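Co-fold these.
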Amino acid sequence: MAEEDRKQIGLTEDGRATVALLTDELGWFDEAQAAGRFALGYAIRAGVEPGQTAAPVETRWSPDLFDPSGEIRSLLRALYPDNVMPVRLMEHFIDEGLRQITVRVKAGDANPALYLG
Amino acid sequence: MLTLRRLEVEGFGPYADRAVLEFPDGPGVTVVYGDNMRGKTSLMNAIRYAFFGEVHGRGERAREVLSACNRDLTAEGRYGFTVGLSLRHAGQDYDLMREVTAKVAVPQSDEDFTRNVSLRRGGVVLGPADRMALLRAMLPKDVARFFLFDGELLAQYEELLISESETGRAISEAIEHILGVPVLRDARDHLAVLASEANKASAKEASRHQKTEAMGVALAAANDAKEAHERERDRKKQEVEELIAERDDIMAELRRQEIYAVAIDRLDTAGKDRDAARGAQVAKAAELKVAMAEAWRTVLSEPVRTARAAAREATAGALASMLTSMRVHAIENCHCGTCDQDVPEDVRTRLAATLPPGATAVSPGDVAGLSALAHTSELDAFREADVRGEVRLIWEALRQARIDEADALGRIAEANKTLDGQNPEELRRRKTSLTEVGGKIRAASDAAEAEQKLVDEQVATIARLSKRLEEAGTPELATFQQRERVLVTAGAVFADAVDRYKAELRARVQDTATRLFLEMTTEKKDYASLSINDHYGLTIIHRDGRAEDSRSAGAEQVVALALMGALQANAPLRGPIVMDTPFGRLDPHHTANVVTTLPSMAEQVILFVQEGEIDRATVRELLGGHLLREYQLDKQTARRTLVVEAR
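Predicted complex below.
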């Protein structure tokens, strides 16, 4: 049986910790989904290969709420035309983006402007 | 002429054991060296206590006796002290002794102490009336500030320059006292009282006769009203004086605690800065979140642009490939599928020449690039947002606000360290009460002025009624009125004499003060003289003829010292100048000039200094033969000091 896409975007435990770091501690974002969108964009710009999150995730967000205008899903279709599971892909990029951001934050880069290119 | 000969204290301030200072016969200077907290001011206060029987701190206001008791002794349950002062006045030697003993085991207030005082002249104890009269004559309390100079009260002299200043008025009255003006003024005032009494007698006499009864009654009423307003005016003036003393005391206290006042100001400022920094952080944090909500668009802009360019290229390639395929198809089938027309031979040859080598027809459905067209459309729908600059600025502002907060917290900690053991609220309260007292002084002064106007109105009424009485006068009344006229005329003579004497005094004080000032100032090339005003305030006059509007604290001190010296030189009342830490505001050059000038300011000068102000070698060199003796105050413990003769 072919693997299906997820209905909800989930976050790994580490991802959830990073989201909390970015929202509550560093105060970059007002809400967790804004941090998630940023992490997704960060991973794509960093050239992270498409894929799926291997670690267990805890569902967090509805894709329609995460991407209410559909822009992100359109972009993923355009950028990764072979991918057929956009929710898993979003989840993957979010997780990877959060992981990379964590590394930099822990290295001392607390200035969000440094992450914007 | 008053000269101090010996001071003896025991149990007073830090002098737990008996301490004696002999002041050699002058003229010249006796210097007492002592570090801070060693008891220089206590010696000055001991002299004050000997004369006035009041304990003072570094201010005008009297304090509780208990505050002067040595703490080491009180810790052992021994309360009380003695202060003895030997002096020479008008060629006779006196021994003044004041002894304070406790009535109860642990005294709490002045009521718990017994105070004894004796004044001996040539070994004979004088009675209370003689003692009080003599002490008043030797050193009247209201002029003591010109003999016992406390640098802390220097600001009072500045008040002389402010014509509306109540403190200035009080000091100028004291100056006139020292200069002997009251002798004339008292005569003038006494004659005015006598004239008033004569007027009242006229009124009484007039009311006894039917013809003048109504005018006599009115005159008596006007006199009563005038006296009532005079009493109220004097009461208000007394109130003003008391309030001024209170204000001076607060100001002296605040000046002494200036370091704490500065710390409080810093604490308040730092607190405001901290709150502002925190407010800025909250505002900038909110701005950051708004900006960062769009940051995902910023980071995706570059990959989207790259992908968009690639998709457009792929779309262009697909279109080119489709055109080639259509041409191949038209050549091979001699028919154009797009316009549904046959393609003639010459056209096919021309089309074949445009084809790239190896071109083949492909099915339109096989053109992979067609999907790129759809991707281009999707990528074009992406709305870019560049928040980099905005986020950078916000973050910078946020960082600065955090630094500002840390800085403010540091300053708060520093100020709190300075204020350790102090009560900032108490100091704030004193500042507030200073403002309140200032308001009360203005109100009381205004009330006194208003009463004076009412007195003047009654005086005018009395004059009018007196004139009418004179016109309608009876032979009996004429005698009373004659007496009144003589007294009024005599009063006018003395009033004129007061003005003339004051004008002459001012000129003499101005000349002497100028001479002393020019000896003491380091700006001899720039300054020409001092100019005196009606209240004995002195202004520095530049060589260009203009007054110096602002002067430094040091210049202020030199002017004050020049005034003291000038008063000494021109007053009928002469005595020693005792100075407590007078060089605090002066630079070394001014200090040296002042020390050199001291012997010409008074016959006897007693100087309490700390060696940080001026060292012994310099004092010896500057004073030469004018230096009569040196003492030093040696610390035994924080509560015990010994007086040691140094030379």
